[in-house]
């Protein structure tokens, strides 16, 4: 089940990674930092030297803890950040926190987490690992379609010792349990804890805010920062990875890693010539009204299609507010900034057409699901919004709405000569025929887009879309699609 690459256990790790500057490969076309900055991806960097560092191919990592069995749209930002690095010729590592996920990061949380059972954790690790793999294989193809040179493997061969472990795709997915499982508690206290200063650990935002609360913080969560620091130091040693990317709440953990790398690799008393490693944080994505991005009516929007259907996923982005859509296009898609500007200018002329939201929904759905998923989602969209109904193909609707309870297959005999008020009641659009009659009287029922005037009207074959479809809609929300064989 554990499909990630196995690493040699990290027992001794005092040797430093070889210098990146010795790499003779050609540099990526454009400094990824400029691109990330232009797109509003950068909250803070740990050193101004990061830009120079990234003139040469480098290795960058992002960690994801498996707190659920699927990622949600809120996880997209760091993954897209990593994709930008890969698309600009750097080597990207996605780290699944099989070990850290059993501890729980206190960053950005006001209360202690409930520990996951080992079985839950294993399910989550498997789910998220597969999803991250899929995200990057689709992401690399998507980047290729948006004009990035991703066909060749990244020139990033940061450390001589890393050549053996860096995969040819330029993206690797690792699991930190692969090195933590061989580290004993005593090893950890001796080799890592010795370098950590408790006063510094207590001053981190994630810990400080919890120390002030009545419940305090457990020793377990307090130690989390050291685990993440150890990851960074391990990837530095095994992969020559010198850059970590994370959400803005990850600043303290990233800095803890850089401190540890420095203590382990810069001999006591030596001048710190250069930054041994770097961190870069991404701003928290919020809506214009200040809410955290990624919830739809209080529920997370998942990347797993079994949890959030492709069409709900598409609709979530299609519903983005005018005030948010430009920012989302910048950080959640690889549409070039100049094109975003054009679309926004077009959008400003006729916001009702939702040109910008359509582009956003199309791009993110293509990136996360596929191009075929975009057309399926758009078919469902036409059905739900009653737009351009005449262009619908019955077979497409069947395929796009497969498994959707709003799609009902019936025989011609089920519908022939049956008054529409009865159909509405039978298929759940009204509580009873009386209710249906009242809705029809109030001009609240439509069949294939046309308002029903007479409750006794029946649906003739000629009324069907593409010979098979009768879309019954009550108001703007409730809909039943009858597919008549
Ligand atoms: N702490 C990160 C996940 C992470 C885990 C391990 C790492 O090495 C890095 C990051 C988070 O909660 O988002």
UniProtKB/TrEMBL annotation:
A GO term for molecular function: tyrosine-tRNA ligase activity
SUPFAM superfamilies in the record: Alpha-L RNA-binding motif, Nucleotidylyl transferase
Name the UniProt record assigns to this protein: Tyrosine--tRNA ligase
Domain of life the protein comes from: Eukaryota
Keywords: Aminoacyl-tRNA synthetase, ATP-binding, Ligase, Nucleotide-binding, Protein biosynthesis, RNA-binding
Pfam families: tRNA-synt_1b
Catalyzed reaction equations: tRNA(Tyr) + L-tyrosine + ATP = L-tyrosyl-tRNA(Tyr) + AMP + diphosphate + H(+)
EC annotation from Swiss-Prot or TrEMBL: 6.1.1.1
Family to which the UniProt record says this protein belongs: Belongs to the class-I aminoacyl-tRNA synthetase family.
UniProt cross-references to NCBIfam families, sorted A to Z: tyrS
